[in-house]
Design goal:
By secondary structure, the chain is mainly alpha-helical. The chain has one domain (21-134). Helix content is 63%, strand content 0%. It has five helices and no strands. The chain has helices spanning 13-41, 54-58, 62-68, 84-112, 116-134. Helix 1 (13-41) runs antiparallel to helix 4.
Amino acid sequence: MTDKSQTSLEAGPEQVLYAKVLRKGMYLGLVILFITFAIYALGIIKPYIPKDKISIYCAMNVHDYLYYAKIKDGWSWLGMLRYSEFINFIGIVILAGVTIICYIAIIPVLLKNNDKLYATMALLEVVILGLAASGILAVGH
């Protein structure tokens, strides 16, 4: 017996849009990572921790590192963007946050296609990921 039901293997418009946004965000994040690493490695901008002292801190756990380096945790790195090792975080944040942008981008497409359930799930995903990134949902550390 043959199965009469046909399953489409073509990506829907929201999947294509998600992939396009993800690709552009990934490339942007990687380019920024390469540029900011070059700035750090070439010494164009002064680092917070001198390169000759970095090996001391690398052996520490995160708690000790933050304590001895006198760095606050959380989003305090935004106030330290004048130092070369902290500008690297910009690319990392883009790579980590591009998923949120992807979900935001597909919500109008889902609503246009009358996929209210998936649009609601995408919106909830944006809210949850946004709350998690903000630190509001932080547990532990």
